[in-house]
Predict the 3D structure of the following.
Amino acid sequence: MITYLEAIREAQAKALADDPRVYIYGQDVGQFGGAFKATKGLAKEYPGRVLDAPISEDAIIGSAIGAAIEGMRPIIEMQFADFSTVGFNQIVNQAATLHWRTQIPCPITIRLPSGGTAGAGPFHSQSMEALYAHYPGLIVMTPATVEDAYSMLLEAVAIDDPVIFCEHKYLYYHLKAEKLPTEAMPTGKARIARQGRDATIVTYSAMLHESLACAEELASEGWEIEVIDLRTIKPLDTDTVLASVARTGRLLTVGEAWPWGGVTAEVIARVATEGFGLLDAPPMRLNAKDTPVPFHPNLWGTHRPTAKTIAVALRRLLSA
Amino acid sequence: MVQATAVSTASADTSDLKARFLTAFRWMLLARVVEEKLAALYRGGKITGGVFLGKGQEALSVATAMALRKGDVFAPLIRDQAGRLAFGETLLDCTRTYMGSRLGPMRGRDGNVHRGRPKEGLMAMISHLGAMLPVVAGTLLARRFRGIEGTVGAVNLGDGATSTGAFHEGLNLAAVEKLPLVLVVANNQYAYSTPTSRQFACEDLVDKAVGYGVAGHSVDGTNLEACLDVLDRAVTAARTGGGPQLVIASLLRLVGHGEHDDAGYVDPALRKSPLGADCLELAEQRLLRENWTTSNALHEMQQDMQRQVEEAVATTLREPLPDPNTEDWCPLATRHLCEGGYSPT
């Protein structure tokens, strides 16, 4: 069995092995192997190519951009997605604009350990995908499975553009697969994770698993719920979403991020503007509460959507 | 720490100095001539957006670029027209970017001083001050990975940029990695309208070098010979394994922040002080005093440069402007992943 976290480690090992232009830079990623051990042993296996960085997110990202201009393909680990705000300027103003301004590609992969875990609190729990997706020039990936964590990270390194790779910390140890995949879906294609005909849930990252658990529960009541895993937030696979809504007529979007703007709103906006006639009921969306992410499990467990709260929303949607 | 101010050239070969001084002067004068033309075009409404001039900073700028070689990396800031020319940027890259020609390196997508050719070592600055410092550090890290030795990266910033997080993070990272990076700070006394007394509290910016564990150099930015000398030493030190070098140059910006700004906030006493001297005038006086050239030769030189500039502007004026209908509205190198269909067109 291989975990989601091990898949990320293995993908980085393969990238280092396959391409001499790849190096890994980030806080504690060297001998220590990273705060979550996503680079465990890599500094030893690839001497001089897995480097500890000072606590300087701006300079870490900025240096990766400079290295990319020189033909390297850096993988940057932000210790927590939350800390990427310190490097925000370099990501959105420098990396995202480089190719458009100068026609020079900026192939950097920025790994963001994302999302909430019990006890992590306001500054180690954030989901930042919508923020980065807002900016032109970035690709934003949100893998929800072990297989995708592996193959999408390899794809991220191969892509000639900056990729924000949102890997979910809650899935690091919880999620396991038999083996690593040998083939993958193309980047930018959503996956139908469960087929159904009564309603469509569009989701991504850790919320895929809450949504699948919800669909399973409702299946025992006779409802057939289709669940779509977006996989990549930007580009967003609107075609797959519209095709599903055409089959089911009902749409619920679920995300762990905050409600204002964001992925759930974007999906609904696209369906409403391009497929309004496909809808048999007003679309619904479910997000985390609009507060900072709380520390205590009692609060955290209620702050984000769960299979239970998704089921409540879905029953409302099905009866609408 | 190396401290050097207006070092004499007793040890330098006079003919070598003459040649370098003359070369530097030519770039400085060409920069002044093209910038005066840009200012005139701006006043005539021929330039969209801002015009940012380097008057008073040409000596420092040209000295930085002349200390560099082909293959080095240079990240100029907004007052580095002289350095850009000396580093190899053409007049056409300048006029095309200012005037929005589709044939320029930025193709109307970015303007004025936001231009460069990164593959040729000339970085295209973003507006956020200090941000190019980590980028240049990264180019040097990449060269280390690739086993390329002997190249240097120079980053030009102003006193205002020393207050940014990027300055701190970038210089610290470069120091930790002992990169061959030269950070040149033009302390021109004002960041836009803010005087240095509201920008930093240290006595002298060069004292920061100790804190970062890098070599520090001070130079009189109005003195071309001193600038050539100090920058040459700083770049040589970086090239030969001395790690990052911090150069602090004292001078006064002799123009507004941009041509929209009359700089009425500049202390008149500063204008009259030695800091307020025009480095180009001082260099010209030196040339004549040393009999390295004649007034007639200088006059001809200037007329020739004016012809070059007029030709570049005339060429640019005949060129196509960016066309929104044929513009490629895709920001990605990976074209099939563009979300073009969802752009408001």
